[in-house]
Design a protein that fits this description.
elongated, 6 strands, 211 residues, Ribosomal Protein L4, Chain: A, 2 domains, alpha/beta
């Protein structure tokens, strides 16, 4: 059982939550986590690199001169990759690097990533986090009060425009609704900051799936 303190935005401890490791799978599934991270990086690749091959450049298909008897090295047509203006040898073509995982596996990988952060004392829960208007200075102050000075994923119950605008100029900070959390984003950041509402929704979601 993990005891997780809940802070207010000023950094004062308000209460604590008892979290059972079984709610997040009981143990970190490293093989599944690696599979999810590989998928995460693969899906970020654009795959639009393209160069012109022999069939894409202008020029005749006629052999430049006969094979034997000229004293020169044998050569094909003018579009060969050995000549200036010819096509690239092994030309790059657009390709799809994307990978997929079943929904249940993605959820288990996300839970393993959260559990790894919990076991490493890298999860912070705040009682409430909202701003009446976008204010980057105010958001930086909250991070300082919570002693978060490294890269961080901020998980919210629902999208909050003012909070997202307050955090978008802060380096290495990512704000996402809890429904969009994935193992790749969690593992790419050192810390996790949950609102209490968002953290309880993840716990309740896992308990509901178990039942």
């Amino acid at each position: 059982m993990i005891e997780l303190p809940v802070y207010n935005p000023d950094g004062q401890e308000m209460e604590s939550l008892k979290v059972d490791e079984a709610a997040f799978g009981g143990a970190v599934r490293h093989s599944l986590l690696k599979q999810a991270i590989v998928m995460y990086h693969a899906n970020k690749r654009v795959g639009t690199a393209a160069t012109k091959g022999r069939s894409d450049v202008a020029g005749s298909d006629r052999k430049l001169f006969r094979q034997k008897g000229t004293g020169n090295a044998r050569v094909g047509n003018i579009r060969t990759g050995k000549r200036v203006g010819g096509g690239m040898t092994f030309a790059k073509q657009p390709r799809d690097f994307s990978k997929r995982m079943p929904k249940k596996q993605r959820k288990l990988a996300r839970n393993s990533a959260i559990l790894a952060k919990l076991l490493g004392n890298n999860v912070v829960v705040v009682d409430g986090l909202s701003f009446p208007a976008p204010k980057t200075k105010g958001f930086i102050g909250v991070l300082k009060n919570l002693k978060i000075d490294r890269s961080c994923v901020v998980a919210l119950q629902d999208y909050d425009e003012n909070l997202c605008k307050s955090a978008r100029n802060v380096p290495k900070v990512m704000v996402v609704p809890v429904a969009q959390l994935n193992a790749g984003d969690i593992c790419n950041h050192s810390k996790m900051l949950f609102t209490k509402e968002a953290f309880l929704s993840v716990l309740n979601e896992d308990k509901a799936s178990e039942n």
